[in-house]
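Chapter review: from sequence to fold.
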Amino acid sequence: WLSRGLGDVYKRQPMEWLPEGHVVYFVLDVVGQLDLGALVDDIQVQDPRGTRPYSPQMMVALLLYGYAVGVFSSRKLERSTYESVPFRVLAGGEHPHFTTINSFRKRHLARLEGLFVQVLRLCQKAGMVKLGHVALDGTKVQGDASKHKAMSHQRMGEEEQRLSEEIERLKRQVGSLLEQAEEVDASEDAQLGEGQRAEDLPAELKRREDRLARIRQAKAELEAEASLARARALREQAARAENISESDPDEAERKRAATRAHSRREKARELDPSGDDDDTTPPVTRDGLPKHEPAVQPDGTPQPSAQRNFTDPDSRLMERGGSFLQGYNCQAAVDEAHQVIVAQAVTNQSPDNGNLVPMLEQVRANCGGAPTRTTADAGYWSPEAAEACPQLGTDAYISTARKKHTEDAIGAPPTCCDGDDARAQMRRKLQTAAGKEIYRRRKAVVEPVFGQVKEARGFRRFLLRGLSSVQGEWSLVCAGHNLLKLFRHLQLEPV
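The token string follows.
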């Protein structure tokens, strides 16, 4: 009787292996509604020779469901199509190789990144996005690189000198051996190895030369980045000096300012010959978030402590919970109504300062409007951000004092000596009964989302390298989060 029962099970169609209402069926329905035209076009223009590609809809569904339930690795995704019933149903009995899954994700990452907005629009259509209160925060995520593979500019110089000396010493040793080998053929086989050509270098020398080349490349890239950063700072100083030279009532001060402006312009041109004289804008990500710049000395060289990672040069050393990791700062703006992520981005700058305005602009672009109220912790505070929020159409509540979670993050009431500057105005606003209540909702809105992503689904490390690729992977994580929120919402409140 047992064998007959198992036979009946195996005869059933895969779509009957899961109970009605399972999230896999929902994912398949959602993927059927997504616009994958651009992705399909990319596949069509590839070389038509070779094996027939897997269905793009199936591959997208596989990735979306994987990121929604915490299966991110391409190897684990392939294994799941054999061992997991939901994945077998979703793949329709197909078993794409992990290299195929990984290649599909990498090749079409820019198209897959757009799925976040499409899923968000479905959440909005279901009435889950109210834009009454949106909270912003960032979380540090480990990159696909070790902090032990990073090296400071000072150590790069030391290692460059040490390796150069070792290479010269080894070359002299090899040269001595080669001279002996020319005199006695027998000693050549004994000392260089049978069949070894005289011009071949030992493996140890080759290894050192390769390491030296990598260090020199990383050092040159770090120095070039520092030169551009210093040039932008000099151009900004020159612009301020030029304003003084034109407006200061003291003639002597005007002359001194004009001299300062000229010298800084010349130094900036020396550091960045091809740069625009009016370019004072720091580098930003494609979402407008500020990027990390190395600490620079006045002569345009990097500070000795400035670092660069050999495995993932875009990643940076960041503090998280008292320890340090080599990774990225992942941003999320979360709507209070159903904890839907309405904007997401990644930067390699550790502080959150400068991220508020670009994130709010993305909320407006994604949702068609600005939130009524926006809350953010002290890391986002700046007078410029506070002034920009009303222009963006939102009422901002931003802490002006960094405190521990167990302490009051709002800060003490401003005194009469604080004046009417932007910080004092924000502090007074947060000290009102309404301001306290609104701000205290911040952590209950955004921090559970990071807990769901990192603890419940286990996303603690990026699989891809480079800022652009990491941004695409974070968008898949956020799309998977919103997909689950939409599924559970429709279960409770069917449309």
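Two observations follow directly from the output. The first strand starts at residue 133 and ends at 142. Strands lie at 133-142, 150-152, 307-309, 316-320, 323-335, 340-347, 373-376, 395-398.
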